[in-house]
Amino acid sequence: MTPQRQVFTLPSFTTTSGRTLKNVRVGYETYGTLNAARDNAILICHYFSGTAHAAGKYRESDPLPGWWDAAIGPGKAIDTDRYFVVSSDSLCCVKVFDGQVVTTGPASIDPETGKPYGLDFPLVSVADMVHVQKALLDHLGIDKLAAVAGPSAGSVKAIQWAVEYPQMVERVIAVICPGLVFTPYQRSVMESWCAPIQLDPAWKNGAYDLKQQPLAGMTESFRQTFLWAISPAWVERMIGEGWADPARDPAASIHHQFKSYAGIGALAAMSTPLCDANHVLYMARAGSTYNVQERIGAARAKFLFIPAESDLLALPSRSQEAVEVIRAAGGRAELFTLKGDGGHFDGLYLIGQASAAIQNFLTSP
Amino acid sequence: MKPQRQTFTLPRYTTLSGRTLKNVQVGYETYGALNAARDNAIFVCHYFSGTAHAAGKYQDSDPLPGWWDAAIGPGKAIDTDRYFVICSDTLCCIKVFDGQVVTTGPASIDPDTGKPYGLDFPIPTIGDYVHVQKALLDHLGIEKLVAVAGPSAGSMQAIQWAVEYPEIVPRVLAVISPGLRIHPYARCLIECWAKPIMVDAAWKNGRYAPDQQPRAGLNESTRLTILTAVSHEFIASTFGDGPADPARPPLAALDHQYQAHDGIGALAAVAAAQSDANHFLYMARTCNAYDVTASIGLARAKFFFLPAESDLIFPPFMSETAVGEIRAAGGRAELLMLRGRGGHLDGLNVIDQARAPIADFLRSD
C-alpha cells in the first residue's frame, strides 16, 4: 500500500486565541479510495512526535512502514479496502525536517518578516489543530466521517473533533488516551520534557538558527519522553543490564553510562535531527491545555477507548473514567484493554489485538 | 523527642575504588538510649535527598520533624523507648547547605589543594557509605545491631550492610526498595533526573563555585525527582488543576504555567537551595551502581520488604523479585504491601500502617 502524500494550503487561518496566520500549510496522506457517496472516510490523528505517515511505505525499500501500519491496511482493523483513510501532519508537527512533513509552526517562515516565527508564533490549541483538519476535509469534499481515530495525543484530537463537529463525527476510536483532560501530573510530566530544551544555552529563548538546534537538550527531552512511553519489561527485553561501554565503568566517572540510559537515548536521538525544538515545546503546551470535560455532552459520536494495561503515561484508569463520564453525560462509550507489558507503545504495536473490536465498532450503527 | 546531632570524623578513609581521602566527616543523629549491654541499636539509612535528621525536632518551633518521624519515636514502629536509633548523613549527602548536614563529597574542600574537590572526588559506592557507617558504629562501641532499616536508597544501604557485615546485622527492613539491584528502567529514570544539571551551562563540568550553583538545572532535576516520587492523586489533591496565575493563561505564553508544575517547582526550589549539584550527580550514580545480586548469599539477616502499591520509582514487583531471590539463596524474607495512592513517598508517609508488623519483626528471631 503506497501512501498518497499531498500538501493542503489555507491562505488565512485564525487561531482560537485570535491571531491570523497567512499561508498555513499541512501535509497529508491518504490510503484507500473515497467512495462515490463520499461517506467512507476515516480521519487518523497522530501522536506527540508522529506525522501524517501513518501506514504503508513510500517505496518498497523503506526500512519501516508508517507508525500505525499494524492498524491500517487491507483487511486490518481500519480496512483500506473499505475505508478512505486521511492522515495529516498537525500544526507545529515536531518532525519538521524528516523530508516528508509539511507543517506550520515556530520553524516556519513568517511571510511578514521573511524569518522563522520562533516564539512569535502563537501557541496553538488542540482545537486549532482540529480546525485545520476540518478545512482539509472541506477541501476534499468530505462532510461526514465514519470515524476519527488516533493514539495518545491523536486520541486527544479525535475526542476534540467529536466536540467541535458533532454532526460530522459518527465514531471516535481513542487509543492509549489520557482522558478528557490531562491530569495535573501528566501535564507536569509533559512540561518536564520541555525543560532540558529550555535549559540548553543553544535554545536562546527560542531564537536559535534552525540549523543550530539545541540538540543536547532535545535529546534529553526525547529520552524522557521515550522512557515514559515504554516499561520496565520492555527495557529488560530490548536493552538489558550492564554498561554502555564495557571499558568505561559508570562507577568511575559520571560521564560513563549505563546501557539502559544510553540505549534509550540512542533510540530517542534517532529522531532528534528530524525535529525542531520549539515545535516540541508548542506540541507539549497544546497537549497541556486540552480539556473537553465540560463540553463532552456536545458530542454525538459513540466512543471506543482502547487503553494498554501496562501504560505508565496514559493510565488505563483514565480511559475507564472517560467512559464513565461520557455515559453519565448520556453518550455511548465502550472499552477494550490491550494486554501486554510494553507500556504506552503497546497502543501502536499491539493494536492488532483489537482488530475485531475495532471492525465491529466501525460497522455498527 | 530531640535528636542528638554530632559529627564523626575519620582521619583517613580509602574508597573501594582505591582512593584515600583525608578528614572524612559525616554528621549523625541518635534517638533513644543505648542500653548497658550495647545491643539495642538500630541503624537507619536515609533516602536519595534525605539527611541524618530522621525523626524529632531540634526545637519545638521547627515546622516539620525529621523525615521518618512516622516510623521512629516512643511507641512507634521503631520504638525509641526500646531501641537506640542512629542515622548518619551519607557521603555525598545532597543537602550540603541545609544548616545541619555534615558530609564529605565533591563540595568539600580537598585538604591538598584548599579548593572544592569537584569531579576530582571519587564516586563512592553504597559499599563505601556502609563502610563509613561501620566506622561510626565502631566509634560508638556498638558491635551488634538489632536491625538496619531505610526507605528507597536507604534500603540499598541496609541490604548492603547485611552483605558487608553479616555477623552484625540480624534483620533488614527494606522499605520502597529497588531490591538487590537497580532495574535498568529505574536506572535510566534516575540518570534522567541528573541530566538537567549537566545541560545547564552554569554547571561548568562540575567546576562551579559552591555559591554559584547551576540553579535552573538543579531546580529542574529536583522537580523531576519529586514528580516521580509522588502520584497523579497526590499532585491533584495537593496542587489542583488550574493555571498558576489566572491572569497568565498557559495558552498565551510558554512561560505561563499550571498550578501543579509551578507548585512542584516551588517545593523543588526550596530543596534545591539546600543542595549541591555535584552531590546530586554523585548520589544518582552511587545508587545506580548498587548491585548485591551476586553477594546476597553472604547475608545472615532476615529481610522484611515493604513496597508501596502506587510507587512509580521502585514498583512493588522489584521487592517481590528480591524476596524470591533471597529465598532462592537460602535466606529468609517477608513482604508487606503498603496501601495508598501517594506513590513512592508512601514509604515515608503511610509507614505507620506497618507499625505492628515492624515491631513484631524487630522482636522475632
**What pair of chains forms the biggest interface?**
A-B, 52 and 56 residues
Encode the helix/strand succession of chain B as letters: EEEEEEEEHEHEHHHHHEHEHH
Structurally, how many domains make up the residues of chain A?
A: 2
Report strand order across the widest sheet of chain A.
1-2-6-3-7-8-9-10
Per CATH, the class of the largest domain in chain A reads: Alpha Beta
Low-pLDDT segments, ≥5 res of chain B: none
| CATH homology superfamily of the largest domain in chain B | Alpha/Beta hydrolase fold, catalytic domain
Major β-sheet profile of chain B: 8 strands, mixed
Instruction: Return Rg of chain A in Å.
Output: 20 Å
Beta-strand percentage of chain A? 15-25%
Q: Might you state the CATH topology name of the largest domain in chain B? A: Rossmann fold
Please describe the topology of this protein.
The complex is a heterodimer of chains A (365) and B (365).
Chain A: E1 4-14, E2 20-31, E3 41-44, E4 72-73, E5 78-79, E6 84-88, H1 126-140, E7 147-151, H2 153-164, E8 171-175, H3 184-199, H4 215-229, H5 232-238, H6 259-269, H7 277-288, E9 302-306, H8 316-328, E10 332-335, H9 346-349, H10 355-363
Helix pairs in contact in A: 1-2, 3-4, 3-7, 4-6
Chain B: E1 4-14, E2 20-31, E3 41-44, E4 72-73, E5 78-79, E6 84-88, E7 109-110, E8 115-116, H1 126-140, E9 147-151, H2 153-164, E10 171-175, H3 184-199, H4 215-229, H5 232-239, H6 259-272, H7 277-288, E11 302-306, H8 316-328, E12 332-335, H9 346-349, H10 355-363
Parallel strand pairs in B: 3-6, 3-9, 4-5, 9-10, 10-11, 11-12
Antiparallel strand pairs in B: 1-2, 2-6, 7-8
Give a quick set of tags describing it.
heterodimer, A: 365 residues, alpha/beta, Rossmann fold, Rna Polymerase Sigma Factor, Chain: A, 2 domains, eight-stranded mixed β-sheet, two-stranded parallel ribbon, globular, B: 365 residues, 10 helices, 12 strands, 16% strand
In a nutshell, what does this entry contain?
The complex is a heterodimer of chains A (365) and B (365). With 365 residues, chain A is an alpha/beta fold.
